[in-house]
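Before surveying the methods themselves, it helps to consider a single example record, giving the amino acid sequence and backbone structure tokens:
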Amino acid sequence: MDKRFFLAVVLCAAVVVLTNVLFPTQRKAAGADSARAGVVAGATTPAAGATAAAATPAAATPAAATPAAGPVTTPTVAGAAPADSTTAAAAAAQAAPEQRTTVTTPRSTYEFSSVGAAPVGITMADYRETHSGKDGALVQLARPSAPMVKYALVVRGDTVPLDRTAFQVVSTPTAGGAGTLVYEGQAAGGTVRIAYTFSPDSYAMRVRGRVDGVPTPAFVLATLPNGLRAAERDTLDDQNHLAFTVKPVRDGATGIPFGKLDPGQRKLEAGPLTWVTSKNKYFLFGMLAPAGAPPFAEATVTGGARTGKRASNASMGVVMPVTSGAFGFDAYAGPIETRRLAAMGREFDGANPVGGFFQPIVQPFAALVVKVMLWLHETLKLNYGWVLVIFGAAMRLVLWPLNARSMRTSLKMQRVQPELQAVQEKYKSDPPRLQAEMMKVYKAHDMSPFSALSGCIPALIPMPVFFALLFVFQNTIEFRGASFLYLADISLKDPFFIMPLITGVTAYLLSWIGMRGVPPNPQTKMMTYMFPAMMVMFCVNAAAGLSIYYAVGNLAALPQQWMISNERAKNLPSSPDRSAPVQGSPRQSGARGRA
């Protein structure tokens, strides 16, 4: 059978497998996030379960005290053993009530706990949960009863958890987040001070700390959130994107999906590290080593328990050196928004690595595609649906000359094929002569043995862009909730399957027009139907925006395909004998050595 038949079978199998891998069947999630606690902007109040007569930046008068923090988890690093001070820290936490301090900036609302001196809630002012409908609640990053970060002090091989240590509020920011929130507490026989400074109109905050009165060397172990709260309509898809990202100083960023970690599996990410993140589909919490300061020493990743077969939890501990009593990091807690990530510096715009095994190839294309679309959106003042229409048509126009050259090369190959077959038949027993005569045929038609390959290259150029868009739509928050025509969200699959069908129809028209004037071939005819069917199968579970881009590209290519098809029809040989010389060939005299 023809090789193209087997190629078609392989392509079909690849589409089926890739579709199942990239877009797994969605089942109902087992256990949704519980209701979120209310946040009062600008207030410093006792936490739920703790009662206080008053709360001030400096002190509080307790009436009852119930720790709000969950069970103690003792992080270890570099073989360090848990210290006996865990019990003392828990007792100290019970001696004073937990105080919640809320800081509001134009972009976010942060809620901090005095037990652990850490943020326990972060609410996005500009983003709403899509699964709650049009009037959904504001997106919150922290999961219930899980702080955004937990600290531990590592001294002389002992790890002293600070997430149950009672800190006192030394100072608080003013309205709008101006100023610094400062906590101070006692641990490991010394004093620990942690200060948070907020950036107006930004999702970043500056975290700096001091450790005094403890033996050296000392380290601070910071534990990232074990996952972010789901905020998307498709909660399972959001869960599938849960991952950590690490950026070594000398290498590119690497993603660590929760699904790749077995429960209890420990993995060391050797330093030095520039930054680390915990992310879901559209949001992340990142810790960056301060510019000019020592990088993070290392990080340890541990797989968490699974919900059924799905990994919804994992942990990462980051080791920060305490230098001259000081430690710190810059934090980003917000959307995976390309320009804001880039503004953080330190190559933080790579915090969302895409492409998997093909990341070195796909990531640059994805970054370029996003930049072009953002530019079109801002320049033309159009929504992203129309931006995709313009982008798809523009891609075809830019590639028009290359595609025309490719198609004309294909026409020349069709004309020269009968002559090549005749030469092969005549000199099949004399390989040196066969090679020489075939080169004469190619030269007579201004071609070379590599003409077929060079003619295929232009057709491959759009593929990196297509695959880049596939990953772009999975994580680019700019497309989240973008509507177009009847579609409420082009980042989600088409619920009515209209765009995938349009894509399939336009792909069929493109193939059907391209086959006009081509000698009958069962395998070629089969591909005319098979390729459009493959595209429909693929686009059914892909983002609707991907179907928009591909359908528009097909429509824009129809005029060129029609012109080349007519050109092919005019140059068809008049004789039914395909082995006869091609009439009207520009260099018929060059067909030498015929039988």
